[in-house]
Design goal:
Two copies of one chain form a homodimer. With 381 residues, chain A is an alpha+beta fold. In chain A, 35% of the residues lie in helices and 22% in strands. Chain A has eleven helices and 14 strands. The first copy, chain A, is globular, with a radius of gyration of 20 Å.
């Protein structure tokens, strides 16, 4: 990490780094101009009260995180705003991450809040390049919640932990009065060991890189929406919730130096991840709509719901940026793993226009894919 | 850790260990008989639904933890059911812990949910003998929660983290609909480094040890009850919420081998901690009521509320068991620290009756102090 990384804001650091490594003089001037603009345009929460959009994982969440949490807690480990923090202890490098889960309903086709809470934190560690080791589990229970449901949730967590090769080693239980929660909220935090030499980050994408997804997108989000039963749609869909640590390990073993970054595409979907990469790296991400794997049932439900699958959460899929020459090896490694069978190159990194995600549509046009605004699918995790 | 520790239940392991080290043959038989009884008497949750008592930190919480969480997640790191899990990474030993906070009201004299959430996790690490390093922060926000209140909470967390010398390095935000939470719930998890050679645990108390509290008890719990305004009591009280890592470090430096265990006396109060120690170590804890420091305002409020200060939560006090010969040194070390000025020896460890806490009352009688039953003070943290 450079000295600038330690003292400047995360976007600024990323852009400066890119400037230093990749740009010609005139390009560097543009970059510095962007830094100045970013400096002047400090994140501000305009709303006086929290809205559902603040939990979407999209634009409102990012603003809240930057204007409130980053502002309060600012430190060099938090500032990159990656899925987990990475630090050294003795001669080891560890990753540490947390997520709270408030999914509704608690039980849905393909999973429940329990395996979701385990897989989500396992995945946040895995995409940092870490081997997940230990999880904590914090429960907020509503008075009146059936003990049998709690047993189902914990049994599901135990199976998921077993499948991912992690242990739940510490925990906590709180109870709130009837009406002060929604059955059960679960928080997991996780510690993982960085035992591979990979150097990953959303600021590491470079022109010429390939953008890969590990399988069909949007299944988790659509499954949750349908499980609520508010829509008169029937579809044979299950959540994609799964632990990605086996897949990330296989990818890093196959291409130790070719992988620029990995991110699991949860709230805000693939589109939000791609925007984070484009901004942090100061590059353009160009996606071919035809190349994005989407199951017909997801596509159909999204059309009826009026939402773009690119914004719908997955809980067992990741977006990976790999150096162009490594794309073939990376894709083969992903496809050789049961959780990566449907992996596909969906686009490429270019240098212009920096900070933007462009979609080449099936009809031959091109449109900008922005960060998610609002929250069309609340409480999907 | 012995092999038995890795394969048997936590109470069993503790009792066996005690048997091996301390007991004569006849005593050992008694101990084995207790193990057999414990084996037959598996923890069972009798209720079909979660009640407020399951969040009290007392008997119902213990049963839920043993019957549901320990049953589902059973592993050697979780089984001791200490305040945090301890494991090795490379040549380092780390502690890892979590707590969720649902205190009501969110703001109270002396603190708020923010500093409580930081101090609570710092303290859980500190009483494991660890130096707290890094925290995670997970927020569950209710739609409509004032952004200004969130800023107050995060500012308070940042100040508390600064005071304790830790950093909040990773986080998460979820939003639930109006009426599905109570403003704001906070989870923190923490990682600390065991850089002192102490060997601590609730199963390590031995006859002849002294029991010490670090200051007047019950202030946090009573402050929260009064802050709710439901009682017509006025008292000049503030929460004792504080980071104990400076105090635990001072104590361990003063008496590296004399300290048997440290526990912060939160939910369930001092009485619950003493019961855990008595059971896990297979010893009797005898407390002198007159020796327990309780401020007059706390004593008065407790009398009006009809509760015993021994069951009321503190958030900046700890219970310590120290070897008899080390008691003087330990007490002096505690009293030399601003957060331990009011430290006092409140009792001693004896060998009979094993597993029980006895109180010598101010009137010269003796009564058993059991684990907290029910929850007279819900949501105090």
């Amino acid at each position: 990490m450079t000295e600038i990384d330690r003292t400047a804001g995360w976007a600024e650091a990323a852009v400066r780094e890119h400037a230093a490594e990749n740009a010609a003089a005139s390009r560097e001037e543009q970059v510095l101009e962007r830094i100045d603009r970013a400096r002047r345009r400090k994140a501000r929460v305009k709303e006086e009260h929290i809205t559902m959009a603040h939990g979407s994982g999209g634009k409102a969440t990012q603003t809240l995180v930057e204007a409130v949490f980053l502002e309060a807690f600012r430190n060099p480990l938090l500032e990159p705003l990656e899925d987990g923090a990475v630090f050294g202890v003795g001669s080891s490098r560890l990753a540490f991450t947390t997520d709270s889960y408030v999914v509704s309903p608690l039980f849905f086709p393909g999973g429940d809040i329990g395996d979701l809470a385990v897989n989500g934190t396992v995945n946040d560690l895995a995409v940092c390049g870490a081997r997940p080791l230990y999880l904590s589990a914090g429960f907020v229970l509503e008075e009146g919640f059936p003990v049998e449901d709690l047993r189902r949730v914990t049994a599901s967590m135990a199976r998921a932990a077993d499948a991912a090769g992690v242990s739940v080693v510490t925990g906590d239980t709180k109870v709130v009065q009837r009406g002060k929660a929604d059955g059960c909220y679960v928080n997991t935090a996780g510690v993982g060991l960085l035992d591979r030499p990979a150097d990953l980050g959303v600021a590491r994408a470079r022109p010429g890189d390939a953008v890969v997804v590990s399988g069909p997108i949007g299944e988790h989000g659509v499954t949750i929406m349908l499980a609520r039963g508010e829509l008169d749609i029937e579809a044979d869909l299950t959540s994609d919730t799964a632990p990605l640590n086996g897949l990330t390990a296989a990818l890093l073993d196959a291409s130790p130096t070719g992988v620029r970054c990995m991110r699991d595409a949860t709230r805000g979907g693939v589109a939000t991840i791609l925007n984070e990469i484009a901004r942090a790296s100061g590059v353009a991400v160009v996606v071919d709509e035809d190349a994005v794997p989407v199951r017909p049932a997801v596509r159909g439900a999204c059309e009826l719901l009026g939402i773009d699958p690119l914004y719908v959460a997955c809980e067992g899929r990741m977006v990976t940026v790999v150096a162009g020459p490594a794309a073939g090896t990376a894709l083969a490694a992903l496809r050789a793993h049961p959780l990566g069978e449907g992996a596909a190159v969906i686009g490429h990194v270019k240098d212009d226009p920096p900070g933007l995600v462009l979609l080449r549509t099936a009809f031959g046009g091109t449109r900008i894919v922005d960060v998610l605004v609002g929250d069309p699918l609340p409480r999907i995790c």
